[in-house]
Amino acid sequence: MLFNFRFFGAGFVLLLFVHAYRRDRLPRGREWNQISVFGALNTTVYLGLFVLALNEVTPGITTLAIALNPLLISVLSAAWMKRKIMPREWIGVVVGIAGVLLAAWPHLETDFASPLGLVLIGLSQLAYSFGSVYYAQVRWK
After folding, report:
1. What is the C-alpha end-to-end distance of the chain, expressed in Å?
2. Nearest CA to 81 among 130, 39, 140?
3. Tens digits of per-residue pLDDT, 97-134?
4. How many CA atoms lie within 13 A of 120 on its CB side?
5. Quick one: which of 40, 48, 102, 131 has the most CB atoms within 10 Å?
6. Percent of the chain whose pLDDT exceeds 70
7. Three-class DSSP category at 57
């Protein structure tokens, strides 16, 4: 909850700064929806699930899970934007996922990690990745 208040406050201060100091216009109409979707995915859902997962999974595992974001973004952007993934990109994704699993395996055997925590971490990483792909495909003004 405090994360959300902090980010809402920071976003409000930044909007005021941009509008008052730089004289840029505030978002209009559909732009508010686009900003809301991006903010919900990349801040509220991502960090909310991440913080909940910290109650169920050790920080070492959550840190390793963050390494999956670029891999997820690559695959999601290809699917969403209908971009063809080159064979060497697939090799990179597979090697990257294998590397994260290899690094995380000892933690999964010795550290605390509930199934719920692993699902929450996975969902948080998916939310962040979807938000990043969404941001890339919107034509921002």
Report:
1. 30
2. 130
3. 888 888 877 777 777 778 898 899 999 999 999 999 99
4. 19
5. 131
6. 98
7. strand
Digit-coded pLDDT (tens) for 4-35: 688 788 888 988 888 888 777 778 888 889 98
Question: Any alpha helices (H) in the chain, and if so which ranges?
Answer: 2-20, 30-39, 46-54, 59-66, 69-80, 87-110, 115-137
CB atoms within 10 A of CB 49: 20
**DSSP character for 33?**
H
CA-to-CA dists, residue 11 to 35, 48, 52, 91, angstroms: 11, 17, 23, 38
pTM over 0.85: no
Asked whether 56 and 116 are in contact (CB, 8 A), the reply is yes
